[in-house]
Amino acid sequence: MRNLVAGNWKSNKLMGEALEWMNGMGPWLAQNHGVRVMAAVPAPYLAVCAEKAPEGLEVLAQNVSAEGFGAHTGEFTAEMLKSCGVAGALVGHSERRARFSDTDAAVAAKVDALLDAGLVVVFCCGETLQERESGRAEDVVLQQLQSGVLRLGAERMDRVVVAYEPVWAIGTGKTATSGQAQEMHACIRKWLDEAFGAEVAQRVPLLYGGSCKASNAAELFSQTDIDGGLIGGASLDPHDFQGVLEGHPGLNR
Ligand code: 13P
After folding, report:
1. Does the 4-246 domain belong in CATH 3.40.50.1980?
2. Which among 4, 5, 10, 245 is the best mutation to test ligand 1's pocket, defined by most ligand atoms within 8 Å of the CB?
3. pLDDT band for position 172 (50/70/90)?
4. Can you give the pTM of this predicted structure?
5. H helices within the chain, ranges in order?
6. Domain segments of the chain: what residues?
7. Is the CB of 247 under 6 A from ligand 1?
8. Residues taking part in catalysis
């Protein structure tokens, strides 16, 4: 199913608030279907959230180590995530690329580690304002995808999700217009088609992220190549997040 909306809490909430959120989503998820729903929660809460998540909610990590088991203090592996009941992880988020040394090569290694463990990869890509204004947005996104995703074997694409998040739209309240987002999503679909063929390209969920909220979700999600969203600020409160989900045309109530 291409319909997918994922929350990304980033570094927010305490343990009790995380559990309140899970409880707050339960009744809504029991009544609404047709869109896959995920939440990327802070690492300390992963095991508990995965256990307490209501039916219909998949828990994601916001990062993973590319290293296997061993002397890597502070890191956690994809196998560890799997053993906690976590569905997968975000990789390549622009906040990690910009501030935590997630280079294209490091991101690619994390993609491989997740896929080797049989987990879902939510691969984030997107250009800065300067890159967009200098006309390089497509080149930048293509380069990120080439190193992270387009090099994979087609048989590994079943568990890959691509999230286009223009850096200038993240947490700024400045959303890409549905036209701008659709234009980039159409490019991404075309690059997937060239690398893997139409059947795979048509199956990969393409999410938009960047100041997506209840008031603009329906317009964004109505675009041909926008299959859902990766939601930061508007995912922190279950009511707000449900408002975003309710903008999805695939929702059956
Ligand atoms: P905002 O929705 O807060 O702009 O964050 C988007 C994002 O970075 C999700 O990963």
Report:
1. no
2. 10
3. confident
4. 0.97
5. 15-31, 46-52, 78-83, 94-99, 104-116, 129-133, 137-145, 178-196, 198-203, 214-221, 238-245
6. 4-246
7. no
8. 93, 165
